[in-house]
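Worked example

This section walks through a single chain of length 268. The input is the sequence exactly as stored; nothing has been trimmed or padded.
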Amino acid sequence: MKVLIITSLTVFLYLGTTLLLSRRLASGMVASQGARLGLIALGLGAVILHGGLVYNTIFTEAGLNLGFYSAASLIMSLVALLMLLAAITQPIENLGIVVLPLAAISLLLDQFLSSQHILASNTTQNIEIHIILSLLAYSLLSIAAVQAVLLAVQDYQLRHKHPGGFMRALPPMRVMESLLFQIIGVGFFLLSLALLSGIIYLEDIFAQHLVHKTVLSIIAWLVFAILLFGRRLAGWRGRTAIRWTLAGFVTLLLAYFGSKLVLEIILA
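Given that input, the structure is written out below as tokens.
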């Protein structure tokens, strides 16, 4: 009963914050710093409760439970946390319109559907470092994907000469693009470390149960590498940057959740 109450309160805070952000965005109002911090605090309250629920689900007596739904809930709580913390200093809280409802959905799936993939408690610390780096990289690049979607909407509105309402609540496109590449840069660095740690610490990174994840992760790394070089050497921006960002994210999504979906849900 206690878990159900906390879950309900968490979902309520997530959706309430989303509703307030949506109303502000639809009206085109530019919020004061105090209003922004209030919304961020409301979202962080939901993330803290979400984190407690995820902790109880993942840390078991047998070891870490990184099943499909538990992993999705963990990653979405990290995405929401990183996004809200960054929003304190950068105007990206509007990403919460996409991120926070997804976090709420992932929490509900984790609480009411069962999937287990236990990582034994005697797992070496090196493997845990690899997992942490992978989760952080995936979380940051997920935020970049949401930023790219919002940038695509902004680009569409400008091309069709709709400068009012929605557009007034967003930073200029140049600022949005700058934030996008800052996020991608940090995410790419962490993804590089995650792949390197996997090569060093995993016995066989191309083992049968890892080969699809490894190959797709390397392809995603190459996509983001090309995007960053294109930005630096050719000044890629706008639609080109959006397409490459989303292509890299979808590849990374398939690398992690695609393989887990097949192995743990469909084949199981």
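What to look for: The helical segments are 2-27, 33-58, 68-87, 96-112, 125-159, 173-201, 211-234, 238-266.
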